[in-house]
Specification:
Chain A: Belongs to the ABC-4 integral membrane protein family. Chain A: Its main location: membrane. Chain A: Keywords: Cell membrane, Membrane, Transmembrane, Transmembrane helix. Chain A: It is found in: Cell membrane. Chain A: It is a multi-pass membrane protein. The complex is a heterodimer of chains A (409) and B (240). The radius of gyration of chain A is 33 Å and the shape is elongated. Helix content of chain A is 56%, strand content 18%. Chain A contains 13 helices and twelve strands. Chain A folds into two domains: 185 residues, no CATH class; 181 residues, no CATH class. In chain A, a hairpin with a 2-residue loop joins strand 8 and strand 9. Chain A has 409 residues and is α+β, with helices and mostly antiparallel strands. In chain A, helix 9 runs parallel beside helix 12. Chain B is of the alpha/beta class and 240 residues long. Chain B has seven helices and ten strands. In chain B, a hairpin with a 2-residue loop joins strand 4 and strand 5. In chain B, helix 4 packs across helix 5 and helix 5 packs parallel to helix 6. The radius of gyration of chain B is 18 Å and the shape is globular. Classes of the chains: A alpha+beta (409), B alpha/beta (240). At the A-B interface, helix 1, helix 10 and helix 13 of A face helix 2 and helix 3 of B.
Chain lengths: 409, 240
């Protein structure tokens, strides 16, 4: 311990003697570490934003959409014809063991009026399960009930954006709004949800019972049809199993065979979003990798200066060896000096990097995230750079022949 | 008289490229405790090689070197470092103090490598500095001291570990005549206190202060004579 302390004191003195040189050498490490910290912070911020958005949609989700059918050689686009029914949704929930919830939905849009305010928004006909599937809490009021669906009640849930535009800051619960001129009672206000990864405002929405939407609001040509079925698997592990089960069940129900094409699509939402999260992680790793190149360049600078320092202090090394310094004493001395340079640079670099990330967040508005882990790794890395690039010069110093070293002018 | 140093048929061969250079061609002599020996000779005579061997900075190609009865030639790097640290004290021609370091810290250096605790280091360094007449200058940096004072610091550093011998390589080579006499007076004083000193010099004037002259030529000893009446070094002024 004494020797380590001694080496530290010697190293501090050596750095003090060449302040400017030490600072310039450190600058390489400072820039390298700061770049790594800032780049990783930006990357981590982006991936956190995406993963927040993913969890805002709900987890372990499958989406069943009506498919296309071929008629007279023309393939109409997906959703062009209504093939999914409310009964399909019920059957999926009842017969697929890996499915937790199945929430059918019909979708339309239209003007909503309250007093002298109006707003055009998305109107979704849903069952009470929808909020479970979307993992969407209610801020005030209550969820729709099965009895609302059974009785085609004129009750509705509204999203935050709708509430803001119609009611401002007033409490919407219990108020009567007119959706497509039909009066509905607001029974619940949905909690804030934010944007989808595609940039849609999820809070700009009204939920009404699916039966009410089908019969009174959207006026479908097939009374029992639904626009989509949202399915939540029981867990992430059985997600792909659930996908198979649902596909199999719907094939049977829709009598898909040699003469009939598959008329629905099952999409794995979570998987699609996970891909975008993955790509943002890869992006942040790339940013970090590019930034760490500058750290390597900084390390080479350290090595260069340490080699100069060894040459300059050849005579000093000779004296130390002559009066009893062992090779490892000399080695430790120069390694300590290199590590001291890089860790000091590392600390300053971490501070500069955090400041830089904060600046980016403020000026450009990108989300940034500096984690303790990143800081710890960056610090360890800067020390590691010192050991790695200080090793060769230190070994060179320790291997000097004392006779030559003493004679060195 | 106890034997401190014993060389037996010591040879040292260097390879300078293709050429074999025989720096020492079978040198034998021994030095007893309390002797003050001058090793003399022209440059290239082998006296420096002999000194490096005595100083455990170099190991002989063949032959034996016993330091206080210990065979030194076969020791490892670390063991040699320990011997240099504990049993030998070096004084060089160029003073060789560490720059930007105080006198006390320079003297403490061997103790640092000897793993001596800080408080004890300080005390022993101050004692050694007092012994060479530098009390009160412990905190001076190397560049604030005169050549003679720097050499005194170097001698204090050599003394601080109570070594078996002090090896001095042209210790007065960079000093003027007056300071030379001062330093030689200090060596004579230390020798009177019982310290064995081996000194390399090419100046007969300086050798005259010692009690024994060993002369080298072409890697071999040509004469080894006692100097029964060494000149007494009397400094012209009080210690600077």
């Amino acid at each position: 311990m004494t020797t380590l302390l001694q080496s530290l004191l010697i190293a501090l003195r050596a750095l003090r003697v060449n302040k400017m040189r030490a600072l310039l050498t450190m600058l390489g490490i400072i820039i390298g570490i700061a770049a790594v910290i800032a780049m990783v912070a930006i990357g981590a911020g982006a991936s956190k934003m995406i993963s927040d958005q993913i969890s805002s949609i709900g987890s372990n989700l499958l989406l069943v959409l009506p498919g296309s059918i071929t008629s007279g050689g023309m393939r109409s686009g997906s959703g062009a014809i209504i093939t999914l029914t409310y009964d399909d949704a019920k059957a999926i929930k009842a017969e697929c063991p890996s499915v937790g919830q199945a929430a059918p939905t019909v979708r339309g849009s239209g003007p909503v009026v309250y007093g002298n305010q109006n707003w055009t928004t998305v109107i979704n006909g849903v069952t009470p399960e929808m909020l479970l599937v979307r993992e969407w809490p209610i801020e005030s009021g209550r969820n729709l009930l099965q009895s609302d669906v059974d009785g085609a009640a004129k009750n509705c849930l509204i999203g935050q954006t709708v509430a803001e535009n119609l009611f401002g800051s007033a409490d919407p619960i219990g108020k009567i709004i007119r959706i497509r001129k039909i009066p509905f009672t607001v029974i619940g206000l949905l909690a804030h949800k934010g944007q989808t990864p595609q940039g849609q405002d999820q809070d700009d929405v009204i939920y009404v019972p699916i039966s009410t939407a089908q019969r009174k609001l959207l006026g479908s040509q097939f009374p029992n049809s639904v626009g989509a079925i949202m399915i939540q698997a029981k867990s992430a592990e059985v997600l792909s199993k659930a996908e198979e089960e649902v596909t199999e069940l719907l094939k049977q129900r829709h009598r898909v065979g040699p003469t009939r094409e598959i008329d629905f699509t099952v999409r794995n939402l979570t998987e699609i979003l996970a891909v975008s999260e993955q790509s943002s992680k890869v992006m942040s790793m790339l940013l970090g990798a590019v930034a760490s190149i500058s750290l390597v360049v900084g390390g080479i600078g350290i090595m260069n200066i340490m080699l100069v320092s060894v040459t300059e202090r050849t005579r000093e090394i000779g004296i130390r060896v002559a009066i009893g310094a062992k090779r490892r004493d000399i080695m430790l001395q120069f390694l300590t000096e290199a590590v001291l340079l890089t860790t000091l640079g590392g600390i300053v670099g971490i501070l500069v990097g955090i400041a830089g990330a904060a600046l980016v967040a403020n000026l450009v508005g990108w989300p940034t995230l500096v984690s303790i882990n990143t800081v710890a790794i960056a610090f360890a890395f800067s020390a590691g750079v010192g050991v790695f690039f200080g090793f060769y010069p230190a070994r060179k110093a320790a291997a000097l022949n004392p006779i030559d070293a003493l004679r060195y002018e | 008289m106890r034997e401190v140093v014993r060389l037996e048929e010591v040879r040292k061969v260097y390879l300078m490229g293709e050429e074999r250079v025989e720096a020492l061609k079978g040198v034998s002599f021994s030095v007893g405790e309390g002797e003050f020996v001058a090793i003399m000779g022209a440059s290239g005579s082998g006296k420096s090689t002999c000194m490096n061997t005595l100083g455990c900075l170099d190991t002989p190609t063949s032959g034996r070197y016993l330091l206080e009865g210990t065979e030194v030639g076969t020791l490892s790097h670390n063991e040699l470092a320990e011997i240099r640290n504990r049993r030998l004290g070096f004084v060089f021609q160029g003073f060789n103090l560490l720059p930007r370091t105080t006198a006390r810290e320079n003297v403490e250096l061997p103790l640092v490598y000897g793993r001596v605790p800080a408080a004890q280091r300080r005390e022993r360094a101050l004692q050694a500095l007092a012994r060479v007449g530098l009390s009160g200058r412990e905190g001076h940096y190397s560049n604030q001291l005169s050549g003679g004072q720097q050499q005194r610091v170097a001698i204090a550093r050599a003394l601080v570990n109570e070594p078996a011998i002090i090896l001095a390589d042209e210790p007065t080579g960079n000093l003027d005549t007056r300071t030379t006499v001062e330093i030689m007076a200090l060596f004579q004083e230390l020798n009177r206190q019982g310290i064995t000193i081996i000194m390399v010099t090419h100046e007969p004037d300086v050798a005259a202060f010692t009690t024994r002259h060993i002369v080298f030529r072409d890697g071999a000893i040509v004469s080894d004579l006692a100097n029964p009446a060494p000149v007494r070094a009397v400094p012209k002024t009080e210690a600077a």
